[in-house]
Amino acid sequence: MAMRDAIVIGAGHNGLVTAAYLAKAGRTVTVLERRERVGGLLDTVELAPGVRAPGVVHTIGRLRRSVIEDLGLVQHGLVTIDPSVRVFAPQPDGSGLTLWADAARTSAELRERSPKDAEAYPAFDARVRALASFLSYLHAITPPDVKDPSIADALNGLKLGNAFRRLGAKAGREATRAMPMAIADYVAEAFETDAMRGAIASRATMYTAMGPWSAGTTAVLLSDSAGNEGGAPGQSVTAKGGPGAIADALAAAATAFGAEIRTSAEVERIITRDGRAVGVALAGGEELHARAIITAADPKRTLTELVDPVVVGPHLSWRAANIRTPGAVSKVNLALSGLPSFAGADSTERLAGRIVVAPSVDYLEHAYDASKFGRMSDEPYLEATIPTISDPALAPEGQHVMSIVMQWTPYRLREGDWDAERDHVADVAVKTMERFAPGLGELVTARHVITPTDLERDYGLSGGHVYHAEPGLDHFFAWRPMLGHARYRFGIPGLYLCGSGAHPGGGITGAPGANAAREILDALKKRGSKR
Known about the structure:
Layout: E1 3-9, H1 13-24, E2 29-32, E3 44-48, E4 51-54, H2 65-70, E5 80-81, E6 85-90, E7 96-100, H3 103-113, H4 115-140, H5 151-167, H6 169-178, H7 183-190, H8 194-201, H9 217-224, E8 238-239, H10 244-257, E9 260-262, E10 267-273, E11 276-282, E12 287-295, H11 299-306, H12 309-312, H13 314-321, E13 329-336, E14 354-357, H14 361-372, E15 382-385, E16 400-407, H15 418-434, H16 440-443, E17 444-450, H17 452-459, E18 495-497, H18 511-525
Parallel strand pairs: 1-2, 1-12, 2-9, 6-14, 12-18
Antiparallel strand pairs: 3-4, 5-8, 6-7, 10-11, 11-12, 13-16, 13-17, 14-15, 15-16
Helix pairs in contact: 1-10, 1-18, 3-4, 4-5, 7-8, 8-14, 11-13
């Protein structure tokens, strides 16, 4: 019976990142993926012959620069596309608001709409970048052991303190004031127009079950800009060939370093001995053993479905079952016979980033209200991209793809089920977008819908939650996913968590995977230790 150093459950991007770092350090690693291909949410799907679209997520600009460089992803084929535009937000009056990568260009265009907003924007963008830079330090460290802090925890505390001090007194006060705030309040302090407030506030709720007036949503926005060049409008970077190209590059890197990757290999349970995780049992009966068992699956599923409940115990099982995973997102992909025309967009350049339907904070709140009562709004918040503008090889010449994230489609519907509502989801998405892009419906030649129940069934996400756990203040830093289990050592000895349910959370960053790899390598070096 071969004994590996590590087994990784799940070949999503964080699982692959962890495996690649471990293999690079000379450790023997096997990655087991239940699906027939790697990548998880980094999926590129075929809508029609020759037409490819982002499966779930469509932008990848939050991926850590250190991960790209450490693992040589460019050498393994990763090509990123960073358009000059970040957001185009069409408005009900037929105009359009554009947020460019260049803050000065954004400010200049805002002057006609609102001189006050034009003046406020550069300072707001700079403030978001400063606060996000502090969070990037927080995201890179391991949360402390709250029961028995170590010297390493103390050193991390010093580094964090120095990063906070470098913010300066004013920005430091702003960080502690802003993070618990509702994003609706935060943007209202800076901007007077509904268009600006809605366009920026929307990003703080993306992929969550929170609304613009929910406490802590400002922290979500700042976290989204941490470690990247997003700033106030956020990033709009895509991968050439679709998001699956990142998964392919990560898999190639891991394999080049010596990791073994097996697809169509579903883990049915984690094997324990004397209360310690020592291996996995696959569907079909095969058993594999390793010194470290690492799960990239969500934390709720890991402890409630994969580990023997007797080993987990009633208290920890109860805590794991109460990790909040209220999925509230659907995905609609459209194959188009031509490029849609948006009111207020005088050039294709404006459509090359994220197209955001969020005319005001009130619009967002009304869409969110419906989800609180188990319904989908008829006027939802949408975020779309047209990746074929920058990457025309995704479709035949002259054709296009539209990737739409539809927010606040609650996992638990008050009436009916998502299989029955699938066509309605696509209809509402097209109808809503057609208010700003007349004739869009006539261009649609094929469509593909992913609902919250699809995310749970096909991607293994509890509750259909893309982030593995809600990014609220109760799942932040030392509380992610649970207090006492935030150091990547998870639940029982020998088991580690490297997915989006671990600190610093969800999104295509690779940060949980990289941080977990650091802790696992340290544990493997310490022979004779309990973890």
